[in-house]
Amino acid sequence: MRGDGARPAPRVRGVRLSYSELRVAGCELVTPRMRRIVFDGDGLAAFTPVAPDQQVKLFFARDGGAPEVPDPPAALDDVAGWYQRYLALPDDRRPWMRTYPIRRHLPDERRVVVDFVLHGDGDGGHGGHDGPATAWAAGARPGDVIGLYGPSVSHVRTPGAHDWKLFVGDETALPAISAWLESLGPDDHAVVVAEVAGASEEQALDSAASVSVTWLHRDGVPAGRSGLLLGAVRAMSWPGGDVFAWVAGEASVVREIRRHLVGERGLDRTAVTFAGYWRTHLAQDAAPTAEELADYADDVGSG
């Protein structure tokens, strides 16, 4: 089923999920390795935001046209069935599916903004963010079509009482970190630890809150292999009070930082939310590893 209108799906915790086709309305470079793409479509009238770090599924047709996507599941217990219908599409018709955070939602304009990390020569790429989605984003032009399903609530955790926020991530996490910071008020306090390829990849992080930012530069070390993020979090002077920690980026790095925060810093598991946006040796949509499943089970058990 195709069309610019939204296709309804089940309500999850009061959120009405939908699928819609979107068109590129504009593109710009945020940094040399990050491209911002604005999408619009009447189907976004049904888009219900769930959190600053909300994620969506994006679908990219293999022939460059409109993606063919099965109708959303009719009930919550049909999500697995929907995925099987997606997998059953012939290879030449099944669109690539990738998960991305929404950088900005503009409801009055029926638009969403997504920032895509592009290839960087000598930087080793970004696993699941390489391949068809990155290639599409690098060449996207106004009028190009993709599909969007979401936003997802599967990873969303509402922070409990806390005194300050800690945001840790590589450049793939910057769109969500930026959205988080823009949602904060003048009485909020946040610390950001961000790893990027080099100084040219630093970007403005606007917020009404009091924010401290530490930029870490890989300077030629492949992404996901520098050890900079974990080292910086281990070495940082811990502000007083309770913290809500948000960590995202390469999956194995995220796991190590979460284990440090819970095991060495003594944070309650419910005070840490984490997301592996990409993996060094595996595509984003490849099956989860045993370690990823164990961490997910541990996180679900603490929620």
UniProtKB/TrEMBL annotation:
PROSITE patterns named in the record: FAD_FR
Xref: Gene3D superfamilies: Nucleotide-binding domain of ferredoxin-NADP reductase (FNR) module, Translation factors
Pfam families noted in UniProt: FAD_binding_9, SIP
Domain FAD-binding FR-type intervals: 17-158
MF GO annotations: oxidoreductase activity
Alphabetized InterPro entries for the sequence: FAD-bd_FR_type (IPR017927), FNR_nucleotide-bd (IPR039261), Riboflavin_synthase-like_b-brl (IPR017938), SIP_FAD-bd (IPR013113), SIP_fam (IPR039374), SIP_rossman_dom (IPR007037)
Protein name: NADPH-dependent ferric siderophore reductase
Organism expressing this protein natively: Jiangella mangrovi
